[in-house]
Amino acid sequence: MTNIDELKSTGLKATLPRLKILEIFQKGTQRHMTAEDVFRVLLEERSDIGLATVYRVLTQFEQAGILSRNNFESGKATYELDEGKHHDHFVCTACGKVEEFYDAEIEKRQQLVAQSKGWVVHEHSMALYGHCAQCAQNKK
Amino acid sequence: MTNIDELKSTGLKATLPRLKILEIFQKGTQRHMTAEDVFRVLLEERSDIGLATVYRVLTQFEQAGILSRNNFESGKATYELDEGKHHDHFVCTACGKVEEFYDAEIEKRQQLVAQSKGWVVHEHSMALYGHCAQCAQNKK
DNA sequence: TTTATTGCAAAACCTTTGCATGTAT
DNA sequence: ATACATGCAAAGGTTTTGCAATAAA
Predict the structure, then answer these.
(1) A133: buried, middle or exposed (CB in 10 Å: 19+, 13-18, 0-12)?
(2) Which has the closest alpha carbon to A134: A102, A100, A97?
(3) Which of A16, A47, A100, B34 registers the highest number of CB atoms within 10 A of its CB?
């Protein structure tokens, strides 16, 4: 399925800004990007796409399930391609790198805790903050 | 130890705004509060304390270890009394209630996952979003 | 041609800061 | 007396929105 078809299948018109932004995420140079990050890439490519459009498209892509949003402690929202595989994040507070992980046991315990208190969990966010292997090494 | 002493012991002068704000959290009417929440209570009490001061005091209290800050998905920071017991949060997306929980197994797995990848975790945030027991019940 | 989308500028929102004034020690 | 804290208003950073112009279907 082409990107054009993918967009149309979600009810979104296949416009140039949307195609460009989708490609930026697919190109994969940087997996987690803020609106500003995306806008900067567009500027470098001399695409005349406004920042407001970037925000609008990111929101639409999130609602369409194309991207997923994360709110880390930086105060800016970051987006990544939604590949349907749930995962949590580790954020390096030294270099800013974001890595992903999944632990079935943690997921299971979350459900158990929720059940024991009668909650119904729809989603969760979990992020570990610290130093990645590389930055921890450099500190020594 | 009085609140005055508690403040002084952290190097903060025992001013009226600081004492008032500390009391609001200790009164415990609402455990998790945004700057705006605190400001609203102060307004009701006719204390002439500015919003900027509320922000400054909350930041200072966090650095002093009196309060701890959480960034849930609302976009606003919330604060709660720091009683030294680490815990995670469950946020009800229907009524806004925040409950706390602690699961030793989850904490242990987080460390294991981090170790296996060479990360050094300094802190983490984890929040489950969904319906609390009461709101889940009302949906039926 | 009809309806959605865009760009721009302005506004909204939460939070921080400069500065003159006031207060705790 | 001195250093710190406050209030106000202004500015900061991120995100949203109104509207006329434009592009997709």
Answers:
(1) middle
(2) A97
(3) B34
Distance CA A22, CA A58 (A): 9
If one counts every other C-beta atom within 10 angstroms of the C-beta of residue B2, the result is 9
Among B88, B79, B89, which Cα is nearest to B25's? B79
What dihedral angle (degrees, nearest 10) is formed by the CA atoms of B79, B83, B87, B93? -30
Which nucleotide lies nearest residue A36, CA to C1'?
D14
pLDDT in tens, B80-111: 999 999 999 999 998 989 999 999 999 999 99
Give the DSSP H/E element, type plus range, for residue A101. Answer: strand A98-101
What is the per-residue pLDDT for B118? 95
Q: What is the pTM of this model?
A: 0.92
In this complex, the answer to whether residue B13 has its CB under 7 A from any atom of chain C, a nucleic strand, is yes
Strand D nucleotides within a 7 Å radius of protein CB atoms: 4-10, 13-18, 23-25
Q: Residue B140 — pLDDT band, cuts 50, 70, 90?
A: low
Contact (Cβ atoms closer than 8 angstroms) between residue B125 and residue B73: no
